[in-house]
Specification:
alpha/beta; Metallo-beta-lactamase, Chain A; about 35% helix; globular
């Protein structure tokens, strides 16, 4: 982990992107402290707190969750007594995720099923024991502004983009945005419940805020070039997906055939299957929040990872 000051009393805690779960967090060290996102397990969140203790003296009074995926909120319980803030869809989504299931799956690294074994190996760095999902109880509806010792902090709901409950955190005076998983930087994004149109709009909204520093949900810090590049990726994958959809090509085969081009160097390129599947759902006219077979998509992702094109990327 790297603790980096990105504004006056504003910090990012960054983890090198090594695949699933390696997310980023933020700290606004004013008015008792506000933390933007916790980490995927308790050991990593304790290390996060240790890093923040270098610049703060008391536990944070507030935690903002940018969305419900466990790698951004499963450490919430360690901020005992803090007000936890997020969108209601973040709170609802946390009810459907199981730390116990992931802990069990860690033991399957030797499974004969290559996709299942690959998923288990991706979890090896994490310890999901003892996690009690602790959802937000203060809800953002549209927009909320916090005043932290005269420093305005805007919490803006921009979903359904990566998920239905996506929230970004904007500090206009410091020209900083904490983007959560609306932005993946130099790593292939994953789309859950949301739409291409809203995700692209959310990226445009971040650019329109004219930040000097953006903290992505995954990957290194950037400026507005980050959301612009990811917008181009989404537009490209959506366009290519439509071409293959119109030809009747299954989503996993379309994922194989799409030329990765300038995105071949992004980490986890096999995640493209998530984005092709999303495009196919939209082209079929499915509702953005219709249940998806996440296990099957994850299985296909790890199947693709075994293939030369994605192994080389």
């Amino acid at each position: 982990m790297e603790l980096k000051e990105i504004g006056s009393n504003v910090y990012a805690c960054l983890q090198e992107d090594r695949g699933l779960g390696w997310s980023n967090s933020g700290l606004i060290n004013r008015a008792g402290g506000l933390v933007v996102d916790t980490f995927w397990d308790l050991p990593h969140t304790r290390e996060l707190i240790e890093n923040y203790s270098r610049v703060w003296k008391t536990p944070a009074r507030r935690v903002v969750n940018t969305h419900h995926n466990g790698d951004h909120c499963w450490g919430n319980q360690l901020f005992e007594g803090a007000e936890i803030i997020g969108h209601r869809l973040c709170a609802e989504g946390m009810k459907g995720e199981s730390p116990e299931l992931l802990q069990m799956m860690k033991g399957m690294a030797g499974n004969e099923d290559a996709a299942l074994a690959g998923f288990a190996r991706a979890l090896v760095a994490w310890d999901f024991a003892g996690i009690t999902p602790t959802p937000p109880t203060t809800f953002i509806e549209g927009r909320m502004t916090l005043n932290l010792e005269d420093v305005p902090v805007h919490l803006i709901h921009v979903g359904p983009a990566h998920t239905g409950g996506d929230v970004i955190v904007h500090l206009p005076e410091q020209r900083v945005v904490f983007a959560g998983d609306v932005l993946f930087r130099r790593c292939t994004p994953i789309g859950w419940d949301g739409t291409y149109a809203k995700w692209i709009q959310a990226l445009d909204d971040i650019v329109a805020l004219a930040p000097e520093v953006i903290v992505p949900g995954h990957g290194p810090l950037c400026g507005v070039e980050g959301p612009r590049e990811m917008k181009a990726y989404l537009e490209y994958v959506r366009s290519e997906s439509k071409r293959f959809f119109d030809e009747g090509v299954p989503a996993i085969e379309a994922s194989r055939r799409i030329d990765l081009g300038p995105y071949a160097g992004w980490t986890e390129p096999a995640r493209i299957i998530f984005n092709v599947e999303r495009a196919y759902r939209e082209l079929r006219g499915d509702p953005y929040d219709a249940p998806i077979d996440a296990q099957e998509i994850i299985r296909n992702m790890f199947t693709l990872q075994q293939e030369p094109k994605f192994a080389r990327a």
